[in-house]
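Weekly structure sync, notes
Attendees: PL, DS, HV (note-taker this week)

Item 1: Threonine synthase
DS walked through the input record. Source organism listed as Pontixanthobacter luteolus. Sequence as pasted into the shared doc:
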Amino acid sequence: MQYISTRGSAPALDFEGVTLAGLANDGGLYIPAEWPRFSEGEIAAMAGLPYAELAARIMTPFIGDSLSQDKLRELCAAAYGRFSHAAVTPLKQFDEQQWLLELFHGPTLAFKDVALQMLGLLFETFLSRSNDHLTIVGATSGDTGSAAIDAVAGRERIDIFMLHPSGRVSDVQRRQMTTVLAPNVHNIAIDGSFDDAQAMVKRMFGDSEMNGRFRITAVNSINWARLMAQVVYYFAAALQLGAPQRKVAFSVPTGNFGDVFAGYVAAKMGLPIERLIVATNVNDILHRALSDGDYSAGSVTPTAAPSMDIQVSSNFERLLFDCGGRDGTALGEQMRAFEQSKAMQLTNSQREGASGLFTSTRAGADDMASAMRWASDHCGEIIDPHTAIGLYAARSTELAKNIPVVTLATAHPAKFSDAVERATGMRPALPSRVGDLFAREERFDELPGDYDAVADYVAQRATESR
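Item 1 (cont.): predicted structure, written out as tokens:
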């Protein structure tokens, strides 16, 4: 398996190469040169497999010769052995059509754990072959930071620098990052939005001086290996609901487009997905792009679903590339123009390519709260604000009654207890395994929203590559 850049001019890499690189050196994102595909019989044979074994089956075509089958199974067993539920991503039923896929049973209570526990092990495995050192630089709107930090804290060959927008993540999200006091963990609160932090990270990947000294990589969903691991739970849910003989729809709370793009990959691999519902909050650039072709960024509006408070969705570039004829040169020009103007119209081929599988819904604060109340009052389920936006979109989308609709529950409700309490009158408690979170010491540094300040901070603390 070879990987190519969405912008056409970076060298093709194998799986180990794209995992360690993160972002392509032409500013693009790596994507498989061709989509592997399972037959209906192969998918049917996966039914009933334990999650770790299913993960190894799904990942094998993407990994190629970079890992042996035995090593891949060993890493999957280690990654998913840390989850608090034996099913890893259990499925619950709301009513005759609506289902909930719980993705928050990992160590930091968010869906990011499903991928990042695996990514941390992949980093360690590949670095041990070269005895090199890796500098992870990431931006988080809340959950990526804590999941990435948990996955790599204390690992000898890795330093991690995580940027979060000061005051724009929940207290639980912040503390899950800032109370990890391992010497290789560096938390940075920047004066700005998530989009500002993400722009700094992308700029650092293109900074020749920084890249000359440090081997910089990403843990955001721009890293292909992370997105690959998220494909697995689409198969897990669909198999339980009758795939491949029965189609399934998924509603995905969406910010950076990585989670829902994993569903697109699953469909490309042969999973019979009827519809992928892109659920956004009032920061609705993706809803506008998919419904009207208008991919124009506005200012970020802070909401009770902070992980979705994003106006530039990095992974959308992968979809535009795949739906637009895989013309890297043309997409590179299109994306560079967007980076300058923050405005872009999708081409006809991009819109047509997306319309067959994707639909979208925008949810306001009242819509989100009503979905939380419905889940509580009618189903006895307490859900977080992000999941509520997905549920609102799922219940607002008309599909045939024989099509089950699975909402991805992306975070434990206790991570957003204030918002849940306002909507339902009930305050969810943190699970006992993280119950002392508010008693732990915090450590982080505050920096202005200035690239040079962040780059100097990293340069003073990172370990130079060999």
